Amino acid sequence: MHRHAFNVGRIVDPEKCLSKIHVLPLVEGPDGRFELRFMIVMAHQISDGLSSYNWFSDFLRMLNLSEKELETEINTGRQEDVIRSKLPPAQEDVYHRVATIKARQRWFWAITHVLRHLRKPTLQSFPNPLKREHRLQYPTTFPPTFSKIFNYDPASAPPLTANIITAALSPAASARMMSLCRSIHVSIGAGCFALAGLAMMALYEERFPHVPAAQRLPFGAGFPLNPRAFFGWNTPADSCMLAFSDGFAMPFLPSELPVEARFRLVAARANRELKMYQKRGKRGGDGASGREGKRERGAWEPHDPRRLLANAYLNAIERSDSKLPEGLAWGVTPHGDLAPPSSSSFRATCGVSSIGRTAQWLAAGTYSLDLDGSEGGREKDFAADFLDLRQGVRAREEEFLVGSNTDAEGRVRFGVSYDESAISGGWAGRWRDVVEGLMEGGGRVSERARI
């Protein structure tokens, strides 16, 4: 069903709703309890990875409310003043103010354009080694198994075939990776970046052994940013709020080197790059202190939140315009007469992101399944607890988006959304095998993929 959902016509109509929940048939267990499954579809306009976890957590909380408590929340939540108090601000409304004087604003944008033009380019990276030699000309068609809820009309189908895969390190491999991260004082997120990169390096080496070592390009990672910290916005994420980095490159390391040595080097590099994007802004006012001139001078630091957001805004304009057909493109050139910024030519090997430990939102055992009160709780007619979650997005053309997290049991997990029209499903499965095997000693790296 999930596979169908990724490859049929749009499931949500923004004129009617931006989210849908599908309740799947119950599965009875041997103990008389039931597995209650949901498939939730959300438009990207309202949700990103962080906000979706908050929503799922609150959904589980509501499932455990009594009928009276639920009615009270519904009646209260329908009041206009309550709705207004909970509406999140638009991302643009919390941007740092550039300047209060019009002339200073113009100077800020003019200098930002010039700095984008002069910035040292990111190293070119090797292409995704999982790509097919020839892209599939037509998307895969699916039988209308769920025609009562999905639109199978070919005219409404997406132009590519999307798919997802999941990978999970064993408890021992997860513990080994975390121990290595602690030994070099890097975040677990940086370790996940490193594992994703090492798996890509191993497969690039395996698939293209004829490329001389001296000519192997680095691994390039593109990743989304959570800009809430830039605004000093520390409340739980409850709406889509995204920015995108320029990406960074990690040196190519051959697989004959010890895996722990490779991991330490790449994880340290990833951690250094990621920390540059973790500066926090101050809430209130224009998000800065001191005189306006001093604020503006600070804004020219490469990773100052104001410059990051300004660059992200300009990059988004250029990226969206470049995707449009010639007849629809606006011809927007924010750089004016200057040559296009060097960062615009960077093509990441794949995208990587990490949301950290998911137990802060969802963990088995959070809610008791005791209905009769025998375990000390109140009697109730319904109770639900968390079991498992699988997430994915509809990948765009040639995307291979690696999401990572650590679950409540301490296992490192990866979920990948990818364009199956461009990426071979066999090689995607091979990536899963390699990333799961690296911290087991790397034995699986030498296995041949079955394509």
From TrEMBL:
<feature type="compositionally biased region" description="Basic and acidic residues">
    <location>
        <begin position="283"/>
        <end position="301"/>
    </location>
</feature>
<feature type="region of interest" description="Disordered">
    <location>
        <begin position="277"/>
        <end position="301"/>
    </location>
</feature>
<feature type="transmembrane region" description="Helical">
    <location>
        <begin position="184"/>
        <end position="204"/>
    </location>
</feature>
<keyword id="KW-1133">Transmembrane helix</keyword>
<keyword id="KW-0472">Membrane</keyword>
<protein>
    <submittedName>
        <fullName>Uncharacterized protein</fullName>
    </submittedName>
</protein>
<dbReference type="InterPro" id="IPR052058">
    <property type="entry name" value="Alcohol_O-acetyltransferase"/>
</dbReference>
<keyword id="KW-0812">Transmembrane</keyword>
